[in-house]
Amino acid sequence: MVVVSLLTAVLLTAAGAIAAYPEKAIEMIIIFEAGGAADISGRMLAQVAEKSLKVPIAPINKPGAGGAVGLAAIANSRPDGYTVGWITGSLLTATNMGNLPFDYQALDYVALVNLEPTAIAVRADAPWASLKEFVADARQKPGKLRIGNAGSGSFTHISAAALAHKARIEVRHVPLGARRMPSLLGGEVEAVSIHPPEIISNLKAGKVRVLGISFPAPVAALKGVPTWKDLGWDVGFYQFRGLAAPKGLPEAAVKRLEAAFREAAQSESYRALADETAITIGLQDSAGFRAFVQQQDGLIKAVIKELGIAKK
User: How much is the pTM?
Assistant: First the structure.
């Protein structure tokens, strides 16, 4: 009788602790530097979600090694619901390039929020009016045209390399990080591989031209821009952003966070940001997010193997 009573008390205490989640501030690791697309979208969602959760969400930037530093910090945290991560498709490039000692299964997936294409953009005064013209010119100048990316092994690097492979062209992939736009506008590279939120202001200012995007369908904010798929060079994968956590997050915490971030993504303020920065809101719950990541992992793994660029 005493044993049963003690067991009941323990179970009730545990259930009460889960039901009360969250009871204190939550840290949200953002795997890239402050001011970038991942940072801006993650912080806005956190500001809205914390109203529903009734505790502060503190965004913490942990950039480095194409997202690998922040991803490792998330994976190595306690799965208690008080450290989560705002992750991107860089999880799959970092793990499949050999920059991390684990794969996508090291995390739990809470909610998929954003989908974004990779765009190939050039200066507005560039001689190429279309991606087909750029590809045709690249075929005439093997290894001469330069495409800037976020870093060696980054999502934008792998995307551009996959496009070049599909289009059968040889280009120079230049890791530039935050210097991509200044380098493009300054003529250091002929094109950049970049995500729309990071280029939209220059596009609206008439400084750049987007030649094509890696998405299954056109994007409203990039009116008239064809998809790589429409041009015959479908790479099949694209950038995503969502909330993840260390492996072993209690299901009750998953559901609580998922609901809060879904509500935040549907808020008027976040939808306005999405429209302004060419973000596609592609909400998926925990199971849907994990299935999506698994599918994208298979595609990216195959591309990296085909390109032969993973660490030995």
Answer: 0.86
